[in-house]
Amino acid sequence: MENIININIKNGIDLHFIKTNKFKTNLLSVFLTTPLKNETVTKNALIPAILRRGTQEMQTQEEISIALEEMYGASFDCGVDKIGDNQVLKFYLETINNSYLPQEEDNLKNAINILLEVVFNPLLIENKFNNEYVESEKNNLKQVIEGRKDSKATYALEQCIQAMYENEPYALYKYGRVEDLENINSENLYNQYKNLIKNCKIDIFISGQIDENIKTNIINNEYIKELQERNPEYIVNNKESRKKQQKQEQEKTESMDIAQGKLILGLDILNEQDNDKYIALVYNAILGGTPTSKLFQNVREKNSLAYTASSSYIRQKANIFIKCGIEINNYEKAVKIIKEQIEDMKNGNFTQENINQAKTNIIATIKFIPDEQDTELMYYFSQELSGYQMNYEEYIEKVNYVTKENVIDLANKIQINTIYFLKN
Known about the structure:
Elements: E1 4-10, E2 13-19, E3 25-35, H1 41-51, H2 61-69, E4 75-83, E5 86-96, H3 107-120, H4 131-146, H5 152-164, H6 178-181, H7 186-199, E6 201-208, H8 213-219, H9 222-226, E7 250-255, E8 261-269, H10 276-289, H11 294-302, E9 306-314, E10 319-326, H12 331-346, H13 352-368, H14 373-386, H15 392-400, H16 404-411, E11 414-423
Parallel strand pairs: 2-6, 7-11
Antiparallel strand pairs: 1-2, 3-5, 3-6, 4-5, 8-10, 8-11, 9-10
Helix pairs in contact: 1-4, 1-7, 10-13, 10-16, 11-12, 12-16, 13-15
C-alpha cells in the first residue's frame, strides 16, 4: 500500500507508519487488542483510565500534563472500543510536527517516549496499582456504565445487540458490568494488566511527516525491548468470524420513562462472501444510509411515522441495524412499512439511479478518509484486524463493480434477527 509501511517488531507486535504531509501534527497511537470475555471485559475497560493517572516517571496526571504542555501543547487521550468480537484499548498522543517548531527539537521522539511510558510503565505501589486511583476510576466507570441509558437511541441499539448475541462475546458492553466492579482491586487489576500486555495484539501507529530514524527509536525503546514475543490472542474479523446461522425472528420490548419510542431492527446477512461487504455498503445506502434512502423517504417523509429513520452496516459482524425514533402508538405501522422496504430490496424495487447515488455517497466517504488523521489511522487499523489490506483506489473499484443483480442477491441473504422496541 502506497502510504503505509508495516513493520513486524516481534511476533504479535507491529509498527505502522502512515506517511502524509497533509497535517501539521503527528498522531501516535497504541492499540491493545484482546478477545471480548465475560471475566475480563470490565477490568480491561478500567485499565486505560488507570494508566493515564500516572507512570513510574510521571506519577500524577498533573506531571503528565506538564510534560505534554512542554511539547508545545501536545494532547493525550485514551479509551476502550469494541471491534467485532475484540475489545480494544486505545491510546493517542497528538503533537506538532518537528518542521513547525520555532527551534530544532525532536518533538516526535519525545512524544513516542511519553506514550510508551504511559502504556507500558504504569505507576506501581508495592507491586500493584495505586489503590486510590483504582477506587476512583471504579466509581467513574460505574457512572459511565449506568449513564448509557442517558442516550436512549444508543441504549436501544446496545439492547438489540445483546438480544441478538445472547451468551456470545459480542453481546458484552465495551465498558463491562457494574456488578464486576466490587471484586476488582489494585492487585487483581494489575495482574490482568500484566496478562493483557503479555498476550494481546499490540499495534503502534504513527501518522504524519516521519523521519526514518523513528523506526530505530521505537524498536530500541526500553519498553518495547522488554515486551515478549507472543501468539496474540485476538479475533480476526474475516469471513469465518462473520458466519451467521438462520434464526427465528424475535421481538423484544422494554419500558422506560421516554417521550419517543426507539425502534431497532437487527438484520443478519447469511452466508456472507468476501465481496458481499462492498455490496452490503450499497445495499445499506439504498435502504437507509442516506437522506434519499427508502427508509427515510417511506417511513419518515411519506408516512410521517418516524422522527428519524436510518440504517447502518456493521461489517465486522455482517449485520445491518435499522434505527427509528417513533411515536409509541406508531409501532405496528412502522414495523410493517420497514418490512415492506426490506421486501422491496429483495424484489429489486429500486432503480439504477438509486445504485449510482449510493455509490457516489460511499465513494465520497472513502475519499474523505485521508483528510482526517484519526479516521485514516482507524481505517488501516480495522484492516489490520481483518487480515486484509486494501488502498483507497482498490476500495473504490470494488464499490464501483457492484451491480443491481449483486444487491438483489445480497438482499435475499438478509433476514430479520431481532425487532427491539424501547417504549414508554
